[in-house]
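Message: Study each token:
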Amino acid sequence: FVYDVELQLAGIRDNAFSFVTMQPTSEYLSLFDEFRRQLYLWLGSGLLVLLILLWLGLTWGFRTLKRVSAELDQVEGGQRQHLSDEHPRELLRLTRSLNRLLDSERRQREQYRNSLGDLAHSLKTPLSVLQGVGETLAAQTQSREQAQVMQAQIERMSQQIGYQLQRASLGKSGLVRHRVELKPLLLSLCSTLDKVYRDKHVQVEMQLAEPCLVPMEQGALMELLGNLLENAYRLCLQQVRISASHHEGDLLLGVEDDGPGVPVGQRERIIRRGERLDGQHPGQGIGLAVVKDILDSYGGELSLAESALGGAAFRIRLQAD
């Protein structure tokens, strides 16, 4: 650094003086480097403190949201009925609104089921009366044919009413997510069917993943598997196979038998409501339609293929989550 000053003394015209001062830059550069180091140090320390404060604030803030999320998971799993009030004031309005929604959904579902039960009870008596009248008419020779037609239609009405009630009551419920252990339910159904078809001595083979929880209400799952297993027991020769496995996040269920099977051209038709290939047994062919309706309400899929046992293989795909 150079600083030059020109000086001319009074009274001396020809002489002038120049004062020059110089300072090396090393001192300035050392001061600049020290200032830069101090600046980086303080800025880095300040940034670290701000990040720590931000992390603490977010952790404290999201802790409450995690608690709300955990309580919602418990509500979906059926472990609790409501969300607690042990939350910050800012979230109480949200949790209370969710509690009101849960209460409303639960009351509507209960009222719906009670109404369906009342409907079934109110229709049962008139159908029983008509059935009795039909039996009385059947005893008379001149009206026996008309009585048989009436009894057949009454039976059809009874089965269709039962189907509609099952279809309405076994759908997926709103916010609550159910998980049912598969093996105990299968053992119970197979024990009942073994008594019904005890003369066939059906051998049941189970190939189940462990653990195997089905994302469905117990009543709906029992109705679904009951229809499939009843078909398998009724049509099999002696062997039934039940399988359950996980694949790409989905739950795969299978019910197979060693019976006559279903022709390829008829597989789509029998899943439709009212279609039957077995004309030797009573029924209106609504069992598989009930199965399909239940699966539709849970976002599942039903398919029919040929089993390695030689008979039919019903395949079910359900989203595990």
Remarks:
- The chain has three domains: 2-68, 89-169, 180-319.
- Confidence is low (pLDDT under 50) at residues 273-284.
